[in-house]
Amino acid sequence: MPRLILSMDGLVLKEMTLEKERTTIGRKPHNDIQIDNLAISGEHAAIVTILNDAFLEDMNSTNGTYVNGQPVKKHVLKSNDVIELGKYRLKYLADSAPGSEQDEAMSYAQAAVTTDTALASNAPADLTSTNAATPVGALGMIQILSGAHAGRTLELSKSLTTLGKPGTQVAVITRRPHGYFITHVEGTVFPVVNGRALDAQAHRLNDNDIIEIAGVKMEFFTKSVT
After folding, report:
1. Which terminal CB of the chain, N or C, has fewer other CB atoms within 10 Å?
2. Distance between CA 111 and CA 125 in Å, rounded?
3. What is the 3-state composition of the chain as percent helix, strand, coil, each rounded to the nearest 5?
4. pLDDT digits (tens, 9 = 90+) for 188-217
5. Which residues contact residue 176 at a Cβ distance below 8 angstroms, ignoring those fewer than 6 apart?
6. What is the pTM assigned to this prediction?
7. Dist. CA 84–CA 139, nearest whole Å
8. What order do you get walking across the sheet with 65-67 strand by strand?
């Protein structure tokens, strides 16, 4: 499981495991990782963990978020990356145990395709996947209800599918042993399911759920497979 090592001036202060799908970092007490320092914004940054991939997002902080010395707004974390918040350092360590899902996971950069691109090609190669366990006897499907590709369908045959518009709104649908789940990854506006905006946690999808991502409406359903 991915973890962070918090340090300042070379002194290790704390080690934390990224157990939640969304981990917030900031000065205010409600953050998962609180750093009580005036250089840190109240809500400074967040890390979204999907399977064993982690995505860092700066939450419009005053002093910015840096990774390996470079300012970032959004960043795909790799093992040994150093997140810099003022004088504080957060070293990201991925789970590199043999046979772990991290070994098979593709990067977010490869996965970040727009909905239109994914549907225009309808090719599995354009989507992210890992070989995690999947539900038996049911295959998730997405049918586009609006936009240029209305009427087209997309099979959710892989374990992780990214949809949306990078830089605007991105969500992932993960295929797990007990169903399909949608999770917000990028953007200030969260995906909408059946007219209600999601929160930061993963949301289980049911047949005929209506999803809105980056201005595109789509319907989720499953079909039986043998």
Report:
1. C
2. 9
3. 10, 45, 45
4. 888 999 999 988 788 999 999 999 998 889
5. 132, 133, 134, 135, 159
6. 0.50
7. 42
8. 11-17, 3-8, 88-93, 82-85, 65-67, 70-72
